[in-house]
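Structure, all two chains, one model.
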Amino acid sequence: MRRATYLVSQALKGLRRNLLVVTAAVVAVFISLTLVFGALVLNELVKVNTSRWQEGVHVIVFLKDDVPLETQLGLQSEIESWDEVQETSYCDKQCAFEEFSQMFADQPAILEDVDPSILPASIRIKLKDVSTYKDVTFRLIDNPAVRKVVTAGERFDQLTSVTRALNWLGIGLAVLLGIASVVLIANTIRMAIYARRDEVAVMRLVGASNWFIRIPFLLEGMVQGLVGAGLAVAAIWLAEGYVSSNAPDEFLIRLSVPDAFMVQWSIAILLFGALAGIAGSAMGVRRFLKV
Amino acid sequence: MILLEGVTKVYEGGTVALRDVDLDVKKGEFVFLVGPSGSGKSTLIRLLLREERVTRGKIWVAGKDITKMPGWKVPHLRRSVGTVFQDYKLLPNQTVAENVAFALEVLGRPQSVIQRQVQQVLELVGLTTKGDRYPRQLSGGEQQRVSVARAFVNRPPILLADEPTGNLDPATSVGIMRVLDRINRTGTTVLMATHDHAIVDAMRRRVVQLERGKVVRDETRGTYESIEEL
């Protein structure tokens, strides 16, 4: 216990005495982890927005006028039972006319010319997974009750592939920056230890065990990593909070990520900072401990 | 206490520092290791501390074969051997008392014991009033006393000194030698490498002379130069 307090006090002393190098290490961790966290948040934003754009109706099946209502409703419940389908809704001629009226509310001339009976009834389908739209369309297209099938399929395909590319880019960027930050920390801490090699030499001279020499450096590295990571987390929280509270409510893309995401990744970034600090110190100190 | 059998040390690059050296130092002895620069004195001291490893031969320090000792036990070896160097090797940003206490912190002694032992050893080397000074505020002789105090504070059975008076004027050197003599009288084995003729001649202790890595003379109450040469 007494030894533990001694080791901790040595670590604190080391941090105080080497303020310049310590600051350099903390800034290095701060910058690289801010970039890592930033990349992760952007990645999440892309995901959030993609899934938002994919909400709503994916496939609309327009029905022939001469098909009896039972057949139409039968078709709807059949579609509803398919694995790919999440939910369906039925919109009869009256409902179609209401929608039409809404769409052209400011052009009464058009409305006057349109007879509600010429607008077709339709079944609207929401898919579980948008990418299955082709199968569903293909199955419906030859049905005798169906007049036409409409999807935004190609858009979905484009959106999905863009999202996937952005995801990989974000993950790749985060990984690269993560590696860079470990190397940066290791280097900075090695510099700090190099500046104190005389001290290490004296410790060895008086018979300090390798762990006794190592632990204060590892603690120092951990503190540096934690402080840097803490600053990075704070910076990203502030930025995310600022952007999401200042974005207009009805903006094309959403600029906030879920709180759970922020909390989870903040913890992960803090842990990563601490571990990177410890690993960096261990690499830095190893060279000076060879007997 | 210290036993070397057929010790040879060849450095990388082929420099032969020691050739087939035999040496037996008994408990409580005071031994001067003399010889010109490059004769192998410092190499011998580094071998005793396991800072270097022998090329051939065996070395026992305090009853242990240190040529076979695994690396993780080396710190224990160094705790039983106090060391003093020409350049003091003090930590500049720690006070005198902290520098001395350092050797005990490493062993995890309780603070009360550390304080008492540090006071005792500072008394022994005559620096009682300077415990809270920093090394740069002391003279060379005083700094070397701090270094001796640190080497002796945990009462090791062996004290190694490599040119401890090398940077000091003759009067100051005498002061350091008094301290080493006092330490020797407590039963500590002292091995001191030196060039200092005056000191060796004044003390009349055992003298081991190295010449190009070989022991060429070993006298119980010797002088720096062998009598025959004079």
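Chain A touches chain B through 18 residues (CB under 8 Å).
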